Amino acid sequence: RIAAVDGDATSGIHAFLHVDTEGALAQAAASDERRAGGTPLHPLDGVPIAVKDVLTTKGLPTTCGSKILEGWVPPYDATVVRRLKAAGLPILGKTNMDEFAMGSSTEHSAYGPTRNPWDQTRIPGGSGGGSAAAVASFEAPFAIGTDTGGSIRQPGAVTGTVGVKPTYGAVSRYGLIALANSLDQAGPVTRTVLDAALLQELIGGHDPLDSTSVDQPLPSLVDAARQGATGDLTGVRIGVVSEMSGEGWQPGVMARFQESVDLLVKAGAEVVEVSCPSFVHALATYYLILPAECSSNLAKFDAMRYGLRVVPDGNPSAEDVMRATRDAGFGDEVKRRIILGTYALSSGYYDAYYGQAQKVRTLISRDFEAAFERVDVLVSPTAPTTAFELGEKLDDPLAMYLNDLATIPANLAGTPGISVPAGLAEEDGLPVGFQILAPALADDRCYRVGAALE
Ligand code: GLN
């Protein structure tokens, strides 16, 4: 299937940056043998999976969609990858992404964009457009994504797949090349809510190699998905976030959203409107905290330790090599954020920008806490629009950032969220996503309500 539809940088889906045909077939053969012997390692033993190219894979290239890591082969597996392998899931390869996970369209990949399987002139979302497109185009039944501000959920929404951002700390970040450490979280991309529950249970759980890993079991996600699938939500209180709709939200998206809300009411849920006033500042807050963290994280790509090294002519100093390498190796969006973050963290400005953003971040968490005293979950459309045209927002960073309006609050608060398909928008026939947000460690609620909509 990958050979038939994936194409390359110029045509086809281009979900993959690297396909490990030989490795995946060998892993599949070993799995067949275990199954024939009646000793599978796990219920998902043998189910192939695609992994976003931001997670390290021993022996397989890992580029983060960047030229600066071209040719780098990590010597170790991310914990998520190690757990997949230990359960017998063949790793198909690495999926395309916006460079260092910065973007909402996968157009910032240094290796060419991924195309939306529903309409190849459209974006597949981002930054994890490769993982979502691989699943939507039936190139992979499962994929792993990462979500720092929406990069699992928004691609899920615009490709008609299920995408989950688990509670911060519920899935190990060891081997996840950091965009913004306090926001990043790996999670499942699948076609059904139950698949996602199985996958999160497999990759999640405490990991001593990640100091932010939560050492506390979550309620069963698979049970929650099965319970939701009965279609009965009697007693569940659902809050519609009033700040996450209105002006600028595509009418066809709002219509499908409303239809899903009506379905939840029919399933017995109680629906109320909830206001989270600080959410309108989430985007501004995110675009200080994220650049601050990433400007510091990306300092390690210094031409000495990893990947690319550009040596200018003459007798260059170490600094000349560093400058030439970073100039050639990083794309525009990455440079934009490094500049923004370095500025926000500079002495004299630190309190005014970074410090202030941290305070607003606390207010956003408090809005969630207040809301979750009244309701069990919050809901909204996952993204304000369906998939836009390739190139449409590429030269307008602010317009691109606005696509993450509804997904970013959960990252700032560390709480879980899921995007489930909600049908197609009437005006363009493209998929719409329905987002469900829950309190920290209550990921099961996302699965229960999500499964009730399938
Ligand atoms: N689109 C958002 C950004 O550009 C989110 C990225 C992400 O979740 N990795 O930062």
From TrEMBL:
Amidase domain sequence ranges: 1-446
Enzyme Commission no: 6.3.5.7
Source domain of life: Bacteria
Family from the record: Belongs to the amidase family. GatA subfamily.
Positions annotated as active site in the UniProt record: K52 (charge relay system), S127 (charge relay system), S151 (acyl-ester intermediate)
Protein name: Glutamyl-tRNA(Gln) amidotransferase subunit A
PANTHER family: GLUTAMYL-TRNA(GLN) AMIDOTRANSFERASE SUBUNIT A (PTHR11895:SF151), TRANSAMIDASE (PTHR11895)
Keywords linked to the UniProt accession: ATP-binding, Ligase, Nucleotide-binding, Protein biosynthesis
Enzyme class: ligase
Catalytic reaction equation(s): L-glutamyl-tRNA(Gln) + L-glutamine + ATP + H2O = L-glutaminyl-tRNA(Gln) + L-glutamate + ADP + phosphate + H(+)
Native source species: Nocardioides bizhenqiangii
Gene designation: gatA
Functional summary from the UniProt entry: Allows the formation of correctly charged Gln-tRNA(Gln) through the transamidation of misacylated Glu-tRNA(Gln) in organisms which lack glutaminyl-tRNA synthetase. The reaction takes place in the presence of glutamine and ATP through an activated gamma-phospho-Glu-tRNA(Gln).
Subunit structure: Heterotrimer of A, B and C subunits.
InterPro entries (alphabetical): Amidase, Amidase_CS, Amidase_dom, AS_sf, GatA
HAMAP family the record matches: GatA (MF_00120)
